[in-house]
Amino acid sequence: MIVAAVDLGSNTTRLLVGRVEDGQLDELHRETRITRLGEGVDSRRRLLPLPIARVRNVLTDYRRTAESLGAGRTLLVATSAVRDAENGEAFLGEIEWSYGFATQLLSGDEEAQLTQRGVGELSAATLLVDIGGGSTELVLDDFRTSLPLGSVRFTERHGEDVEASIQAARALLPELEPESAVGVAATITSLAALDLGLDEYDRSRVHGHVLTREGARAQLARLGALPLEERRQVPALEPERAPVIVASAAILVAILDAYGLESIRVSKRDLLDGAVLAAAELPEPEEGAAPPGAYTCC
Known about the structure:
Layout: E1 2-8, E2 12-21, E3 24-34, H1 41-44, H2 49-68, E4 74-78, H3 80-84, H4 88-99, E5 102-105, H5 108-119, E6 126-131, E7 136-140, E8 143-147, H6 151-158, H7 162-172, E9 180-184, H8 186-196, H9 203-206, E10 210-212, H10 213-225, H11 228-231, H12 242-258, E11 263-266, H13 271-279
Parallel strand pairs: 1-4, 4-5, 6-9, 9-11
Antiparallel strand pairs: 1-2, 2-3, 6-7, 7-8, 10-11
Helix pairs in contact: 5-13, 6-12, 7-12, 10-12
């Protein structure tokens, strides 16, 4: 069957449409747009009108794309920004009513599980790292945690003070003893593209790249030394990611330092892949009344 998934994150809203058969995913379309839904949530605990409007515009386009590709159902998963916002569940109710998407507000543990499902089997000693806009998920064998550190959250808290971000991240990391690491999501894939010296972002070349700790530190130093407008011009770095990349790179360096990891292997598969597999397991959509909160959002 053809299904779609939307990852409603703190920094990006992402779409994946694919054909799922016997638990295997054949990707048809993947798209990412920076909507920064988590803007202001860390301090105000609410989703704000302008970020909501950005998300709604993108979801309108995504619904059209999913339908044009024949997706029979769409699952939207929401993460840190919606978890932390007082009006988050009401916004999800509005999304269900307005767009016909099934929605799921993921707990931190569920987010880590779904990311692990998307990546696939890892050895028991391999740490899975997912640095998002509002939270970071770590998975090691049967251990899973979601931590309140991310690119948008730390940029709002610490600006571009690299040392402050590193120290704040180190203070939140649990004691673990991984032997290797796999990293997913845009912070790590973007740093990998810069480490490779790509002229433009190429997902196929980034997948499987081994980013060393020294390589990550070098890119952090490079990006942190550039004024924002110059950072927006860096080849292979999406311009709208430039305002938050320094804080998120600092989080990655803190993780590698804390666990004595000399490198991290990059995976292009992540939470969104897991969400598509979950979408294929949804029951057939039914017509019905508006979900709770559909008329009270925001």
